Amino acid sequence: MRTVLMVAEKPSLAQSIAKILSKGSCSSRKGLNGACSVHDYTGSFQGQQVRFKMTSVCGHILSLDFIGKYNNWDKVDPAELFSQAPTEKREANPKLNMVKFLQVEAKGCDYVVLWLDCDKEGENICFEVLDAIEPVMNKPYGREQTVYRAKFSSITDTDIWKAMNQLGEPNRNEALAVDARQELDLRIGCAFTRFQTKYFQGKYGNLDSSLISFGPCQTPTLGFCVERHDKIQSFKPETYWVIQAKVFKGRDSPLTLDWDRVRVFDREVGQMFVNLAKTSRDARVESVSKKEKAKQRPQALNTVEMLRVASSSLGMGPQHTMQIAERLYTQGYISYPRTETTHYPEAFDLKGTLHQQANNPMWAQEVKALLAAGLNRPRKGSDAGDHPPITPMRAASEAELGSDGWRLYEYITRHFIATVSEDCKYLQTTIDFTIGTEGFSCSGKTLISPGYTAVMPWQGIPLEEALPACERGDVFTVDEIKLLEKQTSAPDYLTEAELITLMEKHGIGTDASIPVHINNICQRNYVTVENGRKLKPTNLGIVLVHGYYKTDAELVLPTIRSAVEKQLTLIAVGKADYRQVLQHTLDIFKRKFHYFVDSIGSMDELMEVSFSPLADSGKPLSRCGKCHRFMKYIQAKPSRLHCSHCDETYSVPQNGVIKLYKELRCPLDDFELVLWTSGSRGKSYPLCPYCSSNPPFRDMKKGVGCNECTHPSCQHSLVSLGIGQCVECEGGVLVLDPTSAPKWRMACNRCNVLVHFFEHAHRVQVAAESCDACEASLVAVDFNKTRTPLPAGDTQHTGCVFCDPLFQDLVELKHAAMRHPSHRGGARRGRGRGRGRRGNPKKPKDKMAALAAYFV
DNA sequence: GCAAGGTC
C-alpha cells in the first residue's frame, strides 16, 4: 500500500483536518520532537487505497540570517549588509529538530499533500517542507504527480473535503514573494539598526537603551505614537462660544437645549445671536420626532478585536493578552486565539456552545432566555480562511482560571453570547425648538429592549431622564439664555487600542505580530505605557522619529511597508521577477541608507538637545590602565566605563552594578579592578574592564570577569580561586567569592549556583592542594574563636568542602537572585535549597581537569 | 546585540 504524507502548519490543524478526513478513525502518536503529532489512517487517494500520515510543522521551519562572520558588529560595515553579506537559512528552532522529524516521517512515502495555511507565508513553508522531505521520499513512478497542495478556506467538513478533492500544486511565486520579504527585512532592518546603535551609543551616555533598532514595522508603529505627541505639542487651544438655553414647562424642571449652530469662534457674533434669541421669552416646539434605532450586535470575535478590547477595557497589553489566550486555548477553554475571521462556519454548533454556558450565574439568565426563544442569526463577517472566530469551548469558573485568565475568558464568552443575541433597540426622541430666530434642540434615548447589551452592559444605553411629553406648537418658557465661553482641548496620547486599529488599517504587521511590534517599541524605551494604556513616546522615540522626518520621512511613514508589499505582490502573482524586485528594492534602500548615514548630523542635532555626550555622563569610578585617569561609570543601559582622555569605552556585564574593588589592579594591563554584583542576594566577582572587553587569553570569552580568567598566578583569577566543578551546570566552576565575608560563599562562574559555607570564619582561602577523593581544591578556614564549629575549640582546618566530614554540615546550596528570572537556571530557584552535598554528591572532578577546558 | 514572519 502506498503512503501519503500530509503536512499542516501547526499541530492543532493537523489534528482537526485528520479528524475530518479520517471521519474520526485516525490513531495518533507523538513525533520525535515532542511538539508535533502524527495521525495515521487509511483511505482512498487518486483511486487507490492508501495509508495517510497527517502531521504538521510549527510555523516556519527555517529562518534567514547572515552567515556567521557578518554578525560581528565591530568588523562589518553595515553598508555591506545590503549586498555583499551572504545570507543562509537555518532551522528557526533547532530544539524542534523539524527537518529530522519530517525526514523520519517522510521516508518511504510516495505522495505529499501540503495543508499549510492558505496565505503567502504558508506557500513559502510548503517549499521549506518539500526541500526537507523530497530527498527521502520514494521516487515517482514515471511522470506521475507526487506533490499536491490543498487549498481550503475554513476548517469545516465541507471545505476540507472539497480541498481534498481538488488538489492543486504549490505556488512557487507566492513563496518567492516571502523569500524576498525575508531578505529585505533582514538586510534593511539590521543595517539601519547597527548603524544608528553604534553611532549614538558611541556618542551619548544617557540614552538608556541598549539597542536603537529600526524596522519596517516597528518604526512606523513608533511613528504613529510620535505623530500624536506632535499634535498634542503643537496644539493651540481656541476659544469658542456656545449659547446655552434652558426652558421649562409648568412645574417641570428645566431642560437644557443644544444650539443648532453648535458654536461660533467670535464672541461678538455669539453675543449677536444671544440678543436675537433674547427677543423672545417663549420657546416654541417646531417638531417632535421619535425614531426607533438599533445598536448592532458585534461580529464574531477575531484576534485583533480581542486585543483592542483587552487593552481598552481590561487594561491588559497585547503581548500579555496573547499569552493568557494561548493558555486558555491549550487548556481547552477557548478556541484557537489567532484568527482574522469574524464569520462562524456554516456548520458551527452555536447552540451547543451557548448551551455550555447555561449554568454560569454570571449570564445564565440571558443564555437560558436565548435558548428558549431561539438564537439570533449572527451578523455576516469576513472569512479569512484561517480559523473559526474565538469562542468559549467549555464552561469555566473564576477559581479555575485565575484573575486575568478569567477576565479574558469572561469577555470572550460575553462576546460570543452577544453575537447570537438580538440588536439593542432604543427610541431616540428629538424635540426642535425656536427661540426668537435661533434654532435649538434636545434629544434623549430610551431603551426598548437591551438585546445583546444585557451581556455586554458596558455598551448599554445609559439611563436618561425622560423628555417631557409635548407636540408641535407647544410653548415652553425660557428660563435662561447665556453665552458660554469654552476652549477646544488637545487630543490625548494614542491608546494602545487606537494604535492597533491604525496598524491594522495600514497593514503594519499581522494579527500575530502586532503585539510583538508594540512590545518592541516599549522594550526599546521608545514609548512608555501610561495610565489607561496610553502610549507616550520618550525623548529617544521622539528624537528618532523627528530625525527620520528631517532626513527621509519615508523611513517612518506607514507607506514604507505597503510600498514594499505592493512590489512583493507583483512577485506573488507572477508579474515581476523575484531577483529583479529584490535587487531593485535593495538598491533603493541602500541609497536611502547612504543618504541617512551622510545626513546623520541632522538627527544628531536633535540628539544633542536631549542627551549628554559620553564624556559628560556618569560618575568617576576606576582608573584607566593606559592614562591612569579616572574613567566614568555610565549606569544607563547599556552600562559601561568610559575613559574620556583615551576616548575608549569598555562594556561591563549588564543586569548588575559595579563598584571599585579596593583599588586593586589587573597585573596584565594595570586597569583598576571593579566588583560586579547582581544585587544583595546575587553573586559578585571582580572584573578587569580592559580584559573583559579585550580578553587577554585565546580561550577567554568577551564580557567575563576574573572568575573566568585563566591567568596562572593572579590572585583574583579562576586558577587561584576556583574550587571545584559546578554541581548543576556543565562546564561551570565554583569560584570562591573573596568579598563574601563574613557569610562566605562560592559561586559558579557560569550559572547561578551559590554555595554558602563557613558562616563565622574570618578567613577562607583556596589551598594549593587538592582532595584525594574528589580532586577539588582544598579550602583553608580560620574560624572565629568564640563561634567555631570545630571540635575542641579548634579554629583552623583545611579540607575539601565536598568530602571533609568536618565541613559537610557547613555547606548549603542556593541560587543567586537574578534581576531577570528568565536567566539560566532561574526557574529552578527554590528547589535546590538545602540540597547541599549530602544527598547525592555528584563527584566534582579535578579542578585542573575542569580548567583544562579553558586552556584549550 | 539586529528585522518580521510563522508557532510551542
What's a concise summary of this model?
The chain is of the alpha+beta class and 856 residues long.
Keywords:
856 residues; alpha+beta; 32 strands; disordered C terminus; DNA-binding
Q: Give the biggest sheet.
A: 6 strands, mixed
Could you give the count of β-strands?
32
- Quickly count the helices: 22
The percent range for strand residues is 15-25%
The stretches of 5 or more residues where confidence is low (pLDDT under 50) are 820-845, 847-856
Give the spatial strand order of the biggest sheet.
Answer: 2-3-4-1-7-8
What class would the helix/strand composition place it in?
A: alpha+beta
Helix content: 25-40%
Task: Give the overall shape, derived from the CA principal axes.
Answer: globular
Mean pLDDT: 89
| Ends apart, CA distance between termini | 55 Å
Q: What is the rounded Rg? A: 35 Å
Secondary-structure topology with pairs:
Layout: E1 2-8, H1 11-21, E2 27-30, E3 37-45, E4 48-56, E5 62-66, E6 87-91, H2 98-106, E7 111-115, H3 120-133, E8 147-149, H4 157-165, H5 172-201, H6 218-233, E9 239-248, E10 255-259, H7 267-277, E11 282-295, H8 303-314, H9 318-330, H10 350-355, H11 364-373, H12 398-401, H13 403-419, E12 424-435, E13 438-449, E14 475-487, E15 494-495, H14 496-506, H15 514-523, E16 527-530, E17 534-537, H16 539-552, H17 559-572, H18 578-598, H19 600-610, E18 619-623, E19 630-634, E20 640-643, E21 648-651, E22 657-665, E23 672-677, E24 684-687, H20 689-693, H21 718-721, E25 722-725, E26 733-736, E27 745-748, E28 753-757, E29 761-770, E30 777-783, E31 796-799, E32 811-815, H22 847-852
The protein binds one DNA strand of 8 nucleotides through residues 9-11, 35, 57-61, 63-66, 71, 73, 78, 81, 92-93, 95-96, 117, 121-122, 124-125, 178, 181-182, 184-194, 197, 210-211, 213-218, 326, 330, 338, 509-510, 512-513, 516-517, 520, 638.
